[in-house]
Amino acid sequence: MTITVAITALLLIGAWLSIRVLFKEYPDSAIREARDTLFALRSELFELAKSGAIRFDSAAYGFNRSLLNAMIRYAHDVSFVQLLFARVIRKGPAARRYQKEMRAYVGRTHSQVPKPAQEDLDRIMLHADAAMLQLICTRSIAFSGVLWTLTACFAVHHFVGKAKASVKERMESAAAAATQAHHRSRVEESIDEVLESERVRNKIIPAIRIEAFRYMPEDQFANACAA
Fold first, then answer.
1. Nearest 10 degrees: CA dihedral of 155, 158, 164, 170?
2. How many domains does the chain contain in total?
3. Is 223 buried (19+), middle (13-18) or exposed (0-12) by CB count in 10 A?
4. pTM for the complete prediction?
5. What distances in angstroms separate CA 86 from CA 77, 79, 129, 214, 217, one per listed residue?
6. Is residue 80 within 8 Å of 200, Cβ to Cβ?
7. CA neighbor of 41 nearest in space, from 62, 18, 65
């Protein structure tokens, strides 16, 4: 009887720990990783301005820094269900007009940035979008399975592509992959593949940014809307 009770207790403790890891620790670690990435990108944006590539008092720097800060705050709340719900309740002429105005504002601030710095700014914000998209996938157990499936498919596709290449091309590809291995993971490459989707670029990423705008301080949010 005592052994049965002990085994039952151990099973219950194991089940509780498993549930906690899957539904608490795992999502929290995904949030921390995304926030760390966004903090690093914010520092990179600061260094870009510090180098003189863009001005600290420019609209582009102020807006994109505010957007990164908003994404850092939004990371605690973002999820596929939340994003889907937000898109449903924010449909209509007013919402579409607001999105159009915000995109126009972003375009205007971007055009004021010197050409060489535009690519750096685009890269920083694209990585921020990727971090948020990866967070949506990885904080959910179900979507993590989808992401790892995509990662496996991408790895197989990459392996088959290398197998078909010439010996020289394989060596060059291996050298390039080795150089990038310190900076990019398979998951990140899979996210980049997803970002190439027109639907993701035109629907999901704008939806993430629009939701993140709500996490800006009210004065910055109002100034952006009025610009």
1. -110
2. 1
3. middle
4. 0.70
5. 12, 10, 18, 11, 19
6. no
7. 65
Tens digit of each residue's pLDDT (9 = 90 or more) over 184-208: 555 555 556 656 676 677 778 888 8
Residue with tokens 């390039």: 176
Torsion of CA 198, 204, 205, 208, to 10 degrees: 180
| Structure-block tokens of residue 171 | 């060596």
- Domain hosting residue 80, numbered range: 2-226
Q: Name the token pair of 105.
A: 């504002």
To the nearest 10°, report the CA torsion of 129, 132, 135, 140: -110
**H or E, element range at 50:** helix 26-50
The count of C-alpha atoms lying within 13 angstroms of the C-alpha of 130, restricted to the half-sphere facing its C-beta, is 21
